Amino acid sequence: MRRNQGFILLETVFEIFIVCLSTLIVLTTFASTVNILKISLEEMIYQNLISNAAMEIIIISKNEMQNVRVYDSKYVQGDFKEGGQVGLYYDNLTKRIYRFRSQYPSRETLISDKVIGFSYDENFLKVIFNEENIMRLYIKPESSPLPQ
Predict the structure, then answer these.
(1) What is the number of structural domains in the chain?
(2) Buried b (16+ CB within 10 A) or exposed e, 90-115
(3) Mind listing the pLDDT tens digit of every residue in the chain (148 residues)?
(4) Which terminus of the chain has fewer CB atoms gathered within 10 Å of its CB, N or C?
(5) Verdict on whether the full-model pTM lies above 0.85
């Protein structure tokens, strides 16, 4: 074997090493970009679910529920404007909040899961989604009509 062939062999090995190293750099950059995109999309989806749940709770509380008749630490129930009962039910075990409507055959509809806390005190409904997202909603009681 001549000296030139050894140098060419060493140069070829070095070039293969450089190509492999640059390929690894490109792949890790791509993988980290995909990972950042995945984390961002998961956060956007989670925030969207919280926003939708908050809007649904507001719609039920403001538009559908007239008088709050029954309430405790996990349940708020009032009169539905079209007759019957409507309310919100919180399950401590599964950390979910449901809509209750007496006219529906299934009676309960899932609004949101992963709810940390739920309470109704002195006309205020408090729903805690996480440490950053807390909703405190005033539900105005309907006054009864005066007798004439």
Answers:
(1) 1
(2) beeeeebbbbbbeeeeeeeeebbeeb
(3) 556 666 777 888 899 999 999 999 999 999 999 999 999 999 999 999 999 999 999 998 888 888 888 888 788 888 888 888 898 999 989 999 999 888 777 778 889 888 899 988 888 889 999 888 899 988 876 654 444 4
(4) C
(5) no
